[in-house]
Amino acid sequence: MDNFAESFHYYHMKNIRILLFVVLLASQVPTACNEYVSMPVAGDYSVYEVDVDELSGLCMNRAGTALLSCGDKGVVKEISFEGEVTDVWTYGSDMEGITVDPSSGDIYLAIEGKQEVHVLAAPAYDSQEIAFAVSEAVEDNYKNSGLEAVEYYKDDILLVGSQKDANLWQYRKDGTMISKISLSSFASEIAGLCYEPQEDLLWVADSKKAMIFICTVEGELLASYPVPFIDNAESVCVDRERNCIWVGSDEDATRLYKIDFSF
Question: For the whole model, what pTM was predicted?
Fold first, then answer.
C-alpha cells in the first residue's frame, strides 16, 4: 500500500471511530426543545419489591417524607424511600392514579372502569367519595382503557390522563372541565403523571412503549427516556431531593424502581 493509500485508510478509520463515539454519546442525551435547553439525564437504577398489589399510582406525600401509592385491588399505601410499606386505606375500586392537594392534604384517586376521580379527605383518610366523573370517558364507554392517572396541577385544577388515545384533561376539583388535549403524537397511552410546578414540567409514564416522557402541560414533547428494563411502567414520581425518579411497575411481583437522574 503506498503512502497516500495508507494515509487515506488511517484518516478514514479515525473519522469512523469519532463518528461512532459521537453517536454513542448522543444516544444517552434526551432530546430538548425550545427554551428547555437542558433536560435531566438518566443514570443507574435500583429495584425494590413492595407489598402493594398491582401498583398503579405513585406520588409524594404532602410532607415529602415518603411516597403514596395505590393499586388496582383498591389499596392506598405509604412507601418509605427504603421500600417499607404502611397501610393507609382500602376500598373496593380499581385505583389507577393518585395525587395530593398540597394545600389541603386531600388525596385524589383515578378510578378506572367507572371513569371517576375520588377523594380521600385529610387528615383522617377514612372515607372515599366521588369528586367528579370524566364525562367523555363515561359516555364513550372507555371501560378498561380509561382513567389511568390523576395529578394536581395548580389553582385547584387536576390533570387526568387516560389509556385510550393518551387523552389529557384539565378538571377543576368541583368537576368543571377546562380543557382536553391528546399526547398521542408521542405517547401510546398515559399510564402515569407527575407535574413539577417549579420547573413547569409534566412527566408521563407510557407502559406500552416502555418510555418516560417530559412534556409541557400544553402537550409539547421535551424529552424521552426509554425504560426497557421495566415490564409495566404505570406510574412516575419525580424526587429532586434524592436526585431520582420513582417508577411503579404492575408486574407479577410488584416492583418499585428508583432511577438516578442528574437534574
Answer: 0.86
Burial classification of residue 230, based on how many CB atoms lie within 10 Å of its CB (0-12 exposed, 13-18 middle, 19 or more buried): buried
pLDDT in tens, 110-164: 999 999 999 999 999 999 999 999 999 999 999 889 999 999 999 999 999 999 9
More confident residue, 188 or 21: 188
What domains appear along the chain, each with residue ranges and CATH number?
Answer: 32-262 (2.120.10.30)
